Amino acid sequence: MKFSLKLLLWTMVVMAVTLGTGGFYFVNYVFQTSLARETGQALEENSILIFAFETAALNVPAKYDVLPDHTVEQIASNLENSGQNAGRMLRLSDEEKNTLYVSKGFDADDALLRETSDNNRAYRVLKLGEQYYIQTGSVVGALDRRLYLETMKNVSGVFAERAMGFKVYRRMMLLMLSAGAVIMHFIAFWLTKPIRILAYATRQMAAGDYGYRAEVVSGDELGQLTRDFNRMAEALGENVGRLREEIQAREDFVGAFAHELKTPLTSIIGYADLLRSRKLDEEKCFLSANYIYTEGKRLEAMSVRLLDIMVARRVALRPKAMSAERLSDSLREVFLCDGDMEIRYNIEKAVVFAEADLIRTVLINLIDNARKASEPGSVIEVKGSCEETGYRFTVRDHGVGIPEEEQDKITKAFYMIDKSRSRSRNGAGLGLALCAEILALHKSRLEIESVPEEGSRIGFVLPWGKEEACEKEGS
C-alpha cells in the first residue's frame, strides 16, 4: 500500500473516531441537559399539585374529620383536568398504597410507589411502549390522612430530539469525512511528493544513472532528506568513478604486465633455443648470452619493483627523525661507481621526520630515471632545501625531458615514454609508480617540471614534524 494512501486512511480513521466521539458526547450532553430540565419541571409540577391538593382539602366542609375517599377522587379529578396542563396523568393511593384514583393511560407499576416515603421524593424515567415518561412520587398530608401522589410527564420529545440529533450528526459527519477525504487526498499527495521523487531517483541510480539528482521541493525534514540523498549520491558517484578507474587501472596494469613479461621472455626463449640448437662462434654465443642476461636482469628488476610497490601499499609507516646529510651520503655510496654521469649534491642541513629507507628508495629511483633520460657525460643535480611547509628534495637532469601531456601518466605502473630507450637500460616503467606510493604514505607527492629536449626537475616536499629543524648551510 502506498504511503499516501496509508496517510489518507489513518487520517480518516482519526477523524472518524474524533468526530464520532465528540458528536456522541455533544448530542448526549444536550439530551441530558434537556432531560434534567424536564425532570425539574416534573418535580416542580408535583410540588404544585401537592399544594393544590392540600388547599382543596382545607376547603372540605368541617363535618368531615377524615378526608373521605370519594372526596379524594373528586379533588384528583379536578387536578387532572385543571390549569394549562389539562390531561396530565396522576395517581393517588391511600395509606396502604392502594390506588384511590388513577388517570387513564397511567400504566406504571408500583416500583416507584414502594420507594416513596415522607423523607424521599422519588422519580424515574420510564418507557411504556414507544413513549418515555418521567414518573414522580411524593407524600401528601390532608385532614389526618397520609396519601401518595404520583405523576407522569411525557418526555418522548426529548428522546426524539436525541435520536434526531444523532441522525443529523451522522449525516454531517459523513459529509465532513467525505470532504476531508478529498482534501486529505490532495494534502497527502503533496506531502509525499518528495518521497516519490526520492523513489524515482533511487530507481534511476539502481539502473546505473549515478548522475541523476533528486529535485528539492520543500524546506522541511523531507527536503533535508532529499539534500542528504543528493550528497550521498554525489559521494556514491565519486566512489563508483574511483572504482571504475581502479578497475581500469588494474586491467591496464595486467595488460601491461603481460606485455612486459612477453617481450623479454620471447627474446630469452629465442636466444636460448638458438644456443641450444645451433653451434655458434664465440662472438655470437657471447651476444646471445649477454642478451639473455640483460633481459633476465630486467625481469629481476621488474619483479623487485612490483614487490616494493605491493609492500609500500601495505606497509605501516614508522617515521623517525633523520639527517638529510646522512641520506645524501648513502646516495653517494650507491652511485659512486657511475662514471658515465656526474652527480652533484647540494643538501642543506636539516632533520626531517620520515621512513629513511623508503625516502632513500624514492631518491634512488629519481636519480636512476634521470640517468636513463640523460646522455653519457651529463650532469645530474640533487638538491635539498628548507621551505616553510617542509623539506624539499629535487632531482634535476638535462636529458630528453617529458612532454606535458605525458606528465600525469608517468606515475602509472609500466608506463614508459620511450619504451625502446627504457628497455635498453633495463627499465620497466615501475620506478615512479613506486615513488608515488611511498610519498603518499608520507602525505606528499611528486612535483614534475619538464621541457622536452631540455631536461626535467622532479621533486617532493616532506612536511615538517614537531621536532624538525633546518640549518641554512650547504654540503
Mean pLDDT: 80
Biggest sheet architecture:
5 strands, antiparallel
Termini separation: 80 Å
Taking strands numbered 1, 2, ... along the chain, how are they ordered across the largest sheet? Answer: 2-1-5-4-3
Give a quick set of tags describing it.
475 residues, alpha+beta, Beta-Lactamase, five-stranded antiparallel sheet, 55% helix
Question: What does this 3D model show about the protein?
Answer:
The chain is α+β, with helices and mostly antiparallel strands. The protein folds into three domains: 3-169, Beta-Lactamase (2-Layer Sandwich), CATH 3.30.450; 208-259; 314-471, Histidine kinase-like ATPase, C-terminal domain (Heat Shock Protein 90, 2-Layer Sandwich), CATH 3.30.565. Helix content is 55%, strand content 18%. It has eleven helices and 13 strands. The protein has helices spanning 3-58, 69-81, 111-115, 156-191, 193-206, 221-277, 282-314, 324-334, 356-373, 419-424, 431-441; strands at 89-93, 99-102, 122-128, 131-142, 145-154, 320-323, 342-347, 349-354, 379-386, 390-396, 447-451, 455-463, 469-471. The chain has a five-stranded antiparallel sheet. The relative contact order is 0.07. Mean pLDDT is 80; it is low at 416-428.
Topology:
Layout: H1 3-58, H2 69-81, E1 89-93, E2 99-102, H3 111-115, E3 122-128, E4 131-142, E5 145-154, H4 156-191, H5 193-206, H6 221-277, H7 282-314, E6 320-323, H8 324-334, E7 342-347, E8 349-354, H9 356-373, E9 379-386, E10 390-396, H10 419-424, H11 431-441, E11 447-451, E12 455-463, E13 469-471
Helix pairs in contact: 1-2, 1-4, 5-6, 6-7, 7-11, 8-9, 9-11
